[in-house]
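Researcher: Here's the sequence for the chain we discussed earlier.
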Amino acid sequence: MAKVSNILARKGHDTISIAPSTSVYQALELMADKNIGALVVQNGENYLGIITERDYSRKVILKGKHSSDTTAEEIMSTDLPRISPEDSVEHCMELMSDKNIRYLPVFINARLAGIISISDVVKETILQQKETINHLQDYIHGNG
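Model: Thanks. This is the structure I predict for it:
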């Protein structure tokens, strides 16, 4: 069974983070520049939450706020479930589906170890299925 550690091994542990006082506009510029949909909000090494494109659309645009004078801290998601590298990809799928979320912070003890997205989970699932198919083909053809 695939684990979160498989995803982190493939994509890395690096996260792009911003300070809580960063304007939403600056956060959006950074997301566009890096072609990503979420940023970690940190105070030094202390994880505070995640700001996503969805946070922007629902907590800024729909509320009539302006992205230049709204901070990341005001709209970040702070209640995301925390997972560990030992959690299964299947567990992550269930969490994401049940809670209708697209990102999960990964922690080793109390320290942020990375972020995984629904896209990462789908890619890992496809890789695992391809591997299973290859093993079955090898077995059928007498190579296994």
